[in-house]
Amino acid sequence: MSIFSSRKREKILENYLESNSDKLYRLAFVYVKNKNESLDILQDSIVKAYKNINKIKDMKALEKWINKILINTALDYLRKRSRIVYCDDIFKNIELIEDNNSELIESVDNLPEDLKTVIILKYFHGYTINEVSEILEISVPTVKNRLHKALNFLRKEFKEGSYE
């Protein structure tokens, strides 16, 4: 376990946030599909991170810890708003997926939240299965199971849909 003073922890957090703000914004945006709401979620997540910085046991796990805070904040936001978020042409405004495959984005958006989250972390952000497991605090077999279900759903969607 790394022992850092509160000020040192805050400085490490500050440096991480400065270097990764775009990545964190894109992660929030994947959930709410709105620039202002994404910025609100990012801001709320940063406040939560600063308030709880002394609770993190290993500063090497800072990235996973912040991603978990951001994902939970986004999901809480969606639950509170109790609204359905539809994927639309707004993805053209960001370079989240280079080929801008709107059918794929829409299909991922239609997945249940637990399946959608593992797909986003694994394929949109490039985390390994073990890292996804740590971020979501679920077992590796659960991550694999959710990935399998999500990929089967997406394959079925593309075979049956007009995306061929």
Shape: globular
The count of strands amounts to 0
| Quaternary structure state of the chains depicted | single chain
The CATH topology assignment of the largest domain is Rna Polymerase Sigma Factor, Chain: A
**How many separate helices?**
7
Q: Topology as H/E string?
A: HHHHHHH
In round numbers, the mean pLDDT is: 81
Question: Which percent range describes the beta-strand content?
Answer: under 5%
Counting structural domains, the number is 2
Helix-and-strand structural type: mainly alpha
Structure commentary:
- Helix 5 packs across helix 7.
- Mean pLDDT is 81; it is low at 83-100.
- This protein has helices at residues 6-32, 35-51, 62-81, 102-109, 113-124, 129-136, 140-160.
- It is built from 7 helices and no strands.
- The chain is globular, with a radius of gyration of 17 Å.
- The protein folds into 2 domains: 1-83, Orthogonal Bundle (Rna Polymerase Sigma Factor, Chain: A); 87-163, Arc Repressor Mutant, subunit A (Orthogonal Bundle).
- Helix content is 69%, strand content 0%.
- It is an all-alpha fold and 164 residues long.
- GO terms for molecular function: DNA binding; sigma factor activity.
- Belongs to the sigma-70 factor family. ECF subfamily.
- InterPro entries: RNA_pol_sigma-70-like, RNA_pol_sigma-70_dom, RNA_pol_sigma70_r2, RNA_pol_sigma70_r4_t2, RNA_pol_sigma_r2, RNA_pol_sigma_r3/r4-like, WH-like_DNA-bd_sf.
